[in-house]
Every structure is written in C-alpha cells, then in structure tokens.
Design a protein that fits this description.
The structure holds 2 protein chains of 2 kinds. Chain A is rod-shaped, with a radius of gyration of 65 Å. Helix content of chain A is about 95%, strand content about 0%. Chain A is built from 2 helices and no strands. Chain A has one domain. Chain B contains 11 helices and 8 strands. In chain B, helix 3 packs across helix 10 (about 295-340), helix 5 packs across helix 7 (about 225-245) and helix 7 (about 225-245) runs antiparallel to helix 11. The longest helix of chain B is centred in the C-terminal third of the chain and has 44 residues, at about 295-340. Chain B is globular. Classes of the chains: A mainly alpha, B mainly alpha.
Chain lengths: ~160, ~375
C-alpha cells in the first residue's frame, strides 16, 4: 500500500521542479528550437518551391527555344526550297531564252544564207547568161563568117520548124 | 551485484504485502514497432512479473517466521524501489540528504545523518523524530512506535518535505535536461540556415518525432501550443527512466516508478486537457446525444471518464517502471536466495536481457505517456461534432 500512496513531499517537489523546468525549457529551449526548425522547414519549402518554379521556367524556355528553333528550321527550309525553285526557274528561263535566241539566230542565219544564196545564184545566173551570150555571140560570129554555113543553118532551122 | 549485497546489510525489515503490479496493461496503439515485438515484450513482462510476485510473496511469508539474519528479497527489492532520506553510494558510504519537516508548530530542517540509518532518534526544535522504514514520525520521549501510531502521526502533525533521493535524482535529471536543451537551443541560434550537428542532430529527429508522430496526428493543426508541454513530458520521463536503469550513483533512483511523480504528471495532463476542453468536449460530457432521462447515469460515467484517463496514465508509467526494477532486483536476489555464486551467470544473463528490454521500455513509456496526453488533448479540442 505504501508503494501506491503518493507522498506529499515528493508530490510537492515534483510539481515545483516540473513547473520550473517546464517554464525554463519552454522559454529558453523549446521556443527557439521549434522556431528554428519551423524557419528552416519553411526556407526549405520555399527553396523547393522556387526550384520547382525555376524548373518550370526552364522547361518553358526550353520549349520556347525549341519551337523557335523549329520555326527557324521550317523557315530556312522554306527559303531554301524557294531558292531552289527560283534557281530552277532561272535556269529554265535562261535555257528557254538561249533556245529562243539560238533559234532566232539560226533562223536569221538561214534567212541570210538564203538571201546570200539567192544573190549568189542571181549573180551566177547573170554571169552564166553573160557568158552564154558571149559564147553564143562568139559562136554566132564564127558561124556567120561562112555564107554557106549560114544557109545550111537557115535551111536546117527552116526544116525543123513545122507549120 | 555488489550494490545489492551492500544494501542487504543495511536493509531494515519491511513487512511486505501483495502489490498491484498486474494492473499493467500496455498500449498497442503505436505504429513504429512491430506488433509481434510488443506482444513479445508484453508476454515476457507478464511471465516474469508473475514469477516475481510469487517469488516475493513466498519470500515474504518465509521471512517473517525467520530471524533478521535471513536474506529477504522482498525487503531488499522494496527498499530499492522506494524513496530514501539518504543516498547510498557504495559499501558503507551513504550521502545524507536534508530533512525538511512541516509540523503543526513550524518547519524543521536538519540532516538525515542524525538518524544514523534509523538507529537513533533526533530531537529537533519541537519534537523528537524517528526514522522507521525510511519514514519519519514523531515520537514522545521513550515511546515505542507502532505502525498505527506512525500513520496517525503522519496525518496529524507532520508533513515530510525532505529533499529525498528521488528529489535529488529529479534535480540531476533537470540539470541534464537544461544542459542538453540549452546547448541544443544555442546550436540552433548559432547555426542558422545550416544542417544540424552533434548533439543538435541527435536531438532533432526525436523532437521532430514528438512533433510529427505524437502531436500533429493527435492534436491537429493547433498542436503548436502544446509542443512545449509534450516535449518536456517526453524528455522528462525518458531521461528519468534511463537514469533509473543506471545501478550506481547518480542513477539508481526509481523516480518514474514512484507513484507521486506519475501522479503529478498525470494531474498536469488532467488540468491541461480540461482547461483546454472546448464546448464540444463539455457538451459531450454534460449533454451527450442520449435521451435526457439517461443524463443522471451519463454524468457520473463521463466524470469518472475524465479522471480515469489520467489515472490510467499514472498507473501505467508507475507499474511499468517499478515492474522492470523489481524483475531486475529479483533476478539479482536469486544469487542470494540460492546462496551460490554458480547462479550468478544465469542471473547476470537474465539481468542483461532485462536491462536491454528496459531500455526499450524507457523510451516506450515516455512515448506512450506523451502520445496519450496528446490524444486526450486532441479529443478535448476537437472542433467538429459527431
């Protein structure tokens, strides 16, 4: 029974000491400790939130960069393909123009050649005519020097002519 | 073992009775330790304890019929778990502690050395005092003291406010707590924004454990107000449980196994819980959701409920710690009961096992006391009504 009967003295000293301890610890130990722990937790949480935000910002920037890059690439491709098209166009045009020019030149040359040919032919004809006339003149001169022969010829010619 | 033997020689004869240790009912609510382990602890306690009590009873009945020379384990054990007016250090060296008595005529202060371990009376300013069974009582000149007269005197004329062994032990623990937590607190001030180091890093997880696993889940968002109390209670019980496990000076007291100490702690819980009780708490007690004609039955039941919760706290801590001490002392006593050194290895092996178990129990009981205090506070300040 003695063991389970609280003694007033010990109850008194325990109460007094515990209360003193409680107030001392509460004021000088628990308050600063809990405060420091809470502060640190808050700062860690803040830091984590900030890190998260930074990460998001980072990914946003990366996305943006990537989209920009993609856009730039697309633009480049567009420009390149356009340039290619233009180049082909130019080449084609040039070819066409050259063709046309060539054809024109050839045509001109042919016309010129024909002209020259015609002129030359006319010349040649003239010469031939002149020569023929000269030859004929000479021959006629020669043949007409002999009277007999002139008669023969006239008779022959007359024979040939059929009325 | 030596300390036990020394005390055997100076032990006064104490009539032993049956003690209510089987009130022991451990809590199964905590989650950190596997249930199987708890069951193991419980069963070990139960078997060992019943053994200890049987053993004790047997020894007590035996001791009464024999002469004073006979070794009586119950006397030794009870002397060791009881409070004392002097602190036995080693061999025949004893440290006398101050005696402070409040009598109907005024205060008396003197050293307990005057009693010479109960062999001499001391005549103070007002009365003559005698130390019987480490209790001080007033005796008339030449008067023989009976147990009845002792009790009568205690109530009538004398209140003992002595600085006993338990009080000194408590102050040592207070000093330790103050040193530990002031230095930890200083470390927090000095190392702002840095990782904890040394003692600080040892204490921080425990403080966080009290906050995150005891206070927050049980009290809710208002936990911060009660943190100083819970932390103080937790570390006070824990460090005193540990000091109680050290067999030599400055340990060896049975502070948390003393009903007066657990009484004060549970009264503090009682006051804190009821002072903070909100309208729902009081409504639940005085106007519960039952037909009005049941109120006369409900009121006493609820009022008993208010008292019984801290009462269970008081008995639980007291019984657990005292039981642990009794088991260890019983195992040591076996050597003297069998009067053989051959039994010593067995005893020592069991005592080591029990001490390791007690280390667990020391933390466990501090945890349970704090947890239940938090739980009671939580139910008292709960906002919603079911």
């Amino acid at each position: 029974m003695e063991l389970v009967t609280p003694e007033i003295g010990l109850v008194f000293w325990t109460t007094v000491s515990f209360l003193v301890l409680f107030f001392l610890l509460a004021k000088f130990a628990w308050k600063p400790i809990m405060g420091a722990i809470d502060d640190r937790e808050r700062s860690i949480e803040d830091a984590l939130l900030k890190a998260e935000a930074a990460k998001e910002e980072m990914s946003r920037l990366t996305n943006e960069n990537e989209s920009l890059l993609k856009q730039a690439r697309a633009e480049r491709d567009l420009i390149l393909s356009e340039a290619k098209k233009i180049k082909e166009q130019i080449i084609a045009d040039a070819k066409d123009a050259a063709h046309k020019e060539g054809a024109r030149q050839i045509e001109l040359a042919r016309v010129e050649i024909n002209n020259q040919k015609a002129i030359a032919m006319a010349d040649v004809k003239n010469q031939v005519a002149t020569l023929s006339i000269q030859v004929a003149e000479k021959i006629l001169q020669n043949q007409l020097q002999d009277q007999q022969k002139q008669d023969e010829l006239v008779s022959q010619l007359l024979k040939e002519v059929k009325l | 073992m030596k300390f036990t033997f020394c005390c055997v020689t100076c032990a006064t004869k104490i009539k032993s009775k049956k003690h209510p240790f089987n009130v022991f009912k451990p809590y199964f609510e905590f989650k950190k330790i596997a249930l199987s382990l708890i069951l193991g602890v419980f069963l070990t306690f139960f078997t060992c304890k019943s053994f200890a009590i049987q053993h004790e009873e047997h020894a007590a009945t035996g001791a009464e019929s024999h002469n004073k020379e006979e070794f009586s384990p119950s006397e030794v054990i009870l002397e060791h778990i009881a409070d004392s007016h002097s602190w036995h250090l080693w061999g025949t060296t004893t440290f006398p502690l101050p005696v402070i008595l409040y009598t109907d005529k005024g205060f008396e202060v003197f050293s307990s050395a005057h009693f010479e371990h109960g062999h001499a009376d001391y005549t103070g300013k007002y009365y003559t005092y005698r130390l019987v069974k480490d209790k001080i009582s007033i005796v008339g000149p030449g008067e023989e003291l009976t147990a009845g007269a002792n009790m009568l005197n205690m109530h009538k004329k004398l209140i003992d406010f002595s600085i006993t062994k338990n009080v000194v032990s408590m102050w040592i623990s207070f000093l330790l707590l103050i040193i530990i937590f002031f230095s930890v607190s200083a470390a927090y001030k000095k190392r702002v924004g840095k990782a904890p180091k040394g003692l600080q890093s040892f204490m921080e997880p425990i403080i966080l454990f009290v906050r995150d696993d005891i206070a927050r889940p049980n009290i809710g968002y208002k936990y911060q107000r009660f943190m100083p109390l819970l932390l103080t209670v937790f570390f006070f019980i824990w460090i005193n449980n540990l000091i109680g496990l050290v067999p030599f000076f400055p340990g060896g007291s049975n502070l948390t196994g003393n009903i007066a100490v657990t009484f004060v702690l549970s009264v503090i819980t009682l006051i804190i819980v009821n002072v903070n009780g909100n309208k729902y708490y009081w409504k639940h007690i005085f106007a519960p959701d039952v037909p009005v004609w049941l109120y006369p039955i409900m009121w006493p039941v609820e009022l008993v409920g208010i008292i019984s919760k801290p009462f269970a706290l008081m008995i639980r801590l007291f019984a657990n710690i005292t039981a642990g001490h009794i088991i260890v002392l019983s195992l040591i006593s076996l050597i003297f009961v069998f009067k053989s050194v051959a039994i010593a290895p067995v005893s020592v092996a069991f005592v080591v096992f029990m001490d390791v178990l007690e280390l667990l129990v020391a933390a466990l009981q501090a945890f349970i006391f704090t947890l239940l205090t938090a739980l009671f506070i939580g139910t008292a300040i709960e906002e919603h009504h079911h």
